[in-house]
Structure formats: structure tokens, C-alpha cells
Protein: 3-deoxy-7-phosphoheptulonate synthase
Organism: Terribacillus saccharophilus
Amino acid sequence: MLVSRAYKNEDTVIDLKGEKVGTGKASFVFGPCSVESYDQVAAVAESLKDKGLKLLRGGAFKPRSSPYDFQGLGVEGLEILKRAADEYDLAVISEIVTPHDIEKALDFVDVIQIGARNAQNFELLKEAGRTNKPILLKRALSGTISEFIAAAEYIHSEGNGQIILCERGIRTYETATRNTLDISAVPILKQETHLPVMVDVTHSTGRKDIMLPCAKAALAVGADGVMAEVHPNPAVALSDAGQQMDIPAFDKFYSELAAFQAKI
Ligand code: PEP
Ligand code: MN
């Protein structure tokens, strides 16, 4: 397989506006669950800039469990993200959910995210593989590690090898967390593929009280990065209101994580 270490032993490094993902030094992706307004995104972007961080996330096309929940601002959301990212010199990561929106997204995003619900949408994976944009691929809701690797192979097989794998928790019988963070997936994916591996501590745990130790665990087992959601006023968020950090919580989370990173 093209994504395997047996095929290429050198680590894939992805350059996002100067932030090199996959070098061994962890990268961080923060931003709101959904893009709601320019002011909302800009507040998070400013906080990233203050910390010297480069990678801003935000959902414009939201794959919601209920059709009656907020579905995202669509292309308008991508425009807002790009405006904020340009203003604060950040790179944008945003999820695309249908093959025909991939081309539209190319003008607005630096990384196309393929979410857990679409991680086995093979037509979407192939279309993402025909672009030259880096792709952040989440693990499927109940996806095995080998299915995760095969999904990445779908992208690579079309010509695009710039893929970041993102462990985001899997469905298990456990109810104490939103999903079960499979920390062991990180060293396995690092061993079996040459791709950078990140851990999303928001959608895996769904619990703000344990995001920091889980993010530390991710770095300790060799993750190339951590993703978490940040919103200036989570109480009024249109999605994932319960699990996004506000800016003061984000400040504390990041300073403790960065201090941990410096020690390992
Ligand atoms: C997200 O990152 O916005 C998201 C919906 O995550 P996941 O696909 O992992 O559920
Ligand atoms: Mn979310």
C-alpha cells in the first residue's frame, strides 16, 4: 500500500503555511465546532495568533445526527473562515461532506477534513485524492485501524499523499465518554504508515474535564498533533455546546499542554 511504511519509510511531512505537521514536534488545531459568524471565528483566530499557533478549524458543512439540527453555513462559512485566517495569517481546516463541494472548497481551505461519518464514503475519498490539498482524515465511527488505513489508501491511490490521520474515538459499549479514545491507534498508525497522526480530544472524550490528560497521553504516545474545539461563548454554540472550551479554558489547556510538550 502507498500509505504503508513498507512502501515508504520516510515520514510524510505536510507544510501548512510554515507549520510542518509530521516532524515529531506536535502541531495543534483549534477552533469552533461550527462557523457561526465572523466575530465568533475571529475571537478564536486572535487567540491562536497570540499563542503563535497556525492551524484554525471550523465546520461549515456539518454532518449532524438530526436533520433538524444546525447544518452549517456552507460556502458562507468557508468564506468567513478564510477571511479570519487571512487576517490572522492562519491555515484553515474544514470538513467537506460531498464530492461536488470539494472543488468549491479549494479556494477557501488549506486542508480538507473528511469526517468520521464519511470516512468510508469512497467516492468522497477518491475525489479528495484527485486534489492537491492536504486532507485530514478522521477515523470512522466504528472503523477498525485497518479500515482507517484503507480509507487513507483510497485518497493516496488517486495521487494525493498529503494525508493527516486523526484518531477521534470509536463506538464502544462505554458511556462515560462520548466515544472511546483509542490511544493505541496512534503508535500502530505511526508504525504501519508514514503519515502524520493527530488526536481529536473533543469528539473522542466529549468531556472538557479530561481533555488535557488525554491530549498529554496523545503526545506521550507519539501523536503529531492534537485537535480540540474552542468557542468564545460555548453556551450559545449551535453545535457541541457542551464540549467546546471557552477562551480562558483554552488558554489554560494550551499553556499546560505546551509545558508538557516541552518536557517530553
Ligand atoms: C468535527 O471535527 O467537526 C467532527 C464532526 O468530527 P467527527 O467527524 O470526528 O465526528
Ligand atoms: Mn464538534
